[in-house]
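Quick start: what a row looks like.
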Amino acid sequence: MLADEVDYVIGVDTHRDQHTLAVVVAPTGAVLAQTVVLASARGYADALCFAEKHARGVRAWAIEGAGHYGAGLARYLGERGETVLEVGRHARGERRLRGKDDPLDAIRAARTGLTAETLTLPRSGERQDALRVLLLARRSAVDARRQALVQLRSVIVTAPECLREELRRLPTTPLVRRCSRFRRSHTRTPDELATVLALRSLARRIEAATEEANELEREIIGHVRALVPELLNESGVGPIVAAQLIVSWSHRDRVRSEAAFARLAGVAPLPASSGQTIRHRLSRGGDRQLNRALHTVILHRRQHDAATRSYIARRVSEGKTAREATRVLKRYLARHLYRVMQNATPLTT
């Protein structure tokens, strides 16, 4: 545990404009000092001065939200040789029981770091951070495209008969292309003109979002090839899945073992036995985007990989359901992909 390795832990409860710090003595868990600093370069310097004053021995920082509001502070401290750990936010149930208060949350962060058996380092690396923001932007573009496409088809359902008959049987790509080329015409009735303008607007939105997503994907591929190109050789792992794997994994030894990576992905089996029934289920926690990436790979392999289909068939013949067999596969996949990333030789960092 961290308590055996340091003299002090500085817990940090992070927010957009300011961070609350609490120095906790490792051997006793006693609170030594507290302060509030700005979430800015000057505030980060003040935080380090505060630590130099009240925690002069071996110390570590336990930061809540080190990947979001606390990213700037974590980066600042890491560049200056400080030991920085990421701790999760406390569950809502615990906050309801014990209250919500920034100084209390900072103390809880420090004590959580002290007692944690698994120490998580914050994500780091310029390319990893680039992948994170590119994935965020692409996900937004894909969602916008999906929503506009649903709206487009909804408008067609209620469109005047002349338009509906023309458009209803077209596949998606020709449909979007046709709608985006509609022209304003005074020969149309008011309801036809309004429908045409709505269809054109939605179709052009779909085209713009598609082009935006494709451009972002091209950027993502370059970063993936520079960091862990071996992932792209794995069956079912495309550039988007590979990027999510890298963002969650971040860098070598951030996640201490393949078991910890499986837990992070929410695919570590949990006992769910009762009476004479002995079974396991997967965790519903963890990084859900990482879990989704693993699930995407399994879905691809179930369709295109003979070995995967054979494995599922064998486990079903042994009495497991197809869903349970898939859960086992996700655990195996997490182990394999973790080892691929740990053993990768990046072209650049």
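That is the whole record. The beta strands are 8-14, 18-25, 31-38, 59-64, 84-87, 269-271, 280-282. Residues 190-227 form the longest helix (38 residues).
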